[in-house]
Amino acid sequence: MKMISDIDEVLTTTRTVRKRLDFSRKVPVEVIEECLLMAQQASVGSNKEDWKFVVVTDSELKKQLATLYQQVWDETVAIPLSKGEAATVERLAPSVRKSEEEQNRQKRILDGVKYLVDNLENVPAILFACSSAPVPRNAMGGGASGYYGSIFPFVWSFQLALRSRGLGSVLATAIAHKAEEVAELLLLPDGCKVITMVPFGYTKGIEFSKGARQPISTIFRWDRWDTQ
Ligand SMILES: Cc1cc2nc3c(=O)[nH]c(=O)nc-3n(C[C@H](O)[C@H](O)[C@H](O)COP(=O)(O)O)c2cc1C
Fold first, then answer.
1. Cβ contacts of residue 104 below 8 Å, gap of 6+?
2. Ligand 1 pocket, 106 CB below 6 A?
3. Measuring from atom 17 of ligand 1, which residue has the nearest CA?
4. Which end of the chain is more exposed for a tag (fewer CB within 10 A), N or C?
């Protein structure tokens, strides 16, 4: 059942939800299927549906995935930060953010990310978005844009469809650090790669506000990027 039908409200309040996921409430299969059908209307490169999706609700499987996700946290966040590794500090450490407000926000986000790591097995359901398209040879360029760009419109539509029904979600790409291990657990066909996961469930309350963003003038220009 739709709870928020105003599209602008859905677009502006689909937040990343971690701590407000209600672990005690099961998500009915029909709701998940409805959101998948909505998302399947998203645009896809070359009009080739080289995408595969798996929704995990099985407790044992969630436990195994949670163990992998904990390893991702340790290997890509906790250990590099504790060693002061430059690239990770620059990307994630609150201390390198410019203002006190940004530092506090980054602290809150890291705290939320860790909460998800510690609680993944309790999340009611997790969508895995995968691609069976040929893996692009270069990290940049049309091939790469088409490869990843054929997955995220589906994922974002899925998140919007969840939100309009009173559910919340997290786009958690970090799981792709263990893409091969996850593919094995999910019995994905050969050549099918895990791009991201989206843990989701009903939210505790449905009130969410707009996110903090830079003024639009800092990220947008008409016609050309001049630096006034
Ligand atoms: C490409 C991308 C990757 C992300 N990966 C993760 C992730 O691995 N784990 C996580 O907890 N959140 C992840 N997020 C969520 C961001 O941390 C989130 O957008 C941020 O906390 C801001 O919250 P908001 O979306 O509610 O404004 C990701 C978001 C994007 C767009």
1. 94
2. no
3. 109
4. C
**Taking the model in full, what pTM does it have?**
0.96
Cα distance between residue 192 and residue 180, in whole Å: 10
Distance between CA atoms of 210 and 37, rounded to whole angstroms?
26
Cα(228) to centroid(ligand 1), Å = 30
Per-residue model confidence as pLDDT tens digits over 115-172: 999 999 999 999 999 999 999 999 999 999 999 999 999 999 999 999 999 999 999 9
- CB 174 less than 6 A from any atom of ligand 1: yes
Q: What is the pLDDT of residue 9?
A: 97
Ligand 1, atom 25, residue with closest C-alpha:
16
* 155 and 43 Cβ atoms separated by less than 8 Å: no
Domains and CATH numbers, the chain: 7-58+122-218 (3.40.109.10)
Section 71-96 average pLDDT: 95
Cα distances from 161 to residues 9, 122, 219, 220, in angstroms, run 12, 22, 27, 28
H or E element in which residue 72 lies:
helix 59-73
pLDDT of residue 228: 57
Nearest to 72 by CA among 186, 167, 179: 179
Ligand 1 proximity of 155 Cβ (cutoff 6 Å): no
Q: How far is the CA of 112 from the centre of ligand 1 (A)?
A: 10
Contact status, residue 192 vs residue 130, Cβ threshold 8 Å: yes
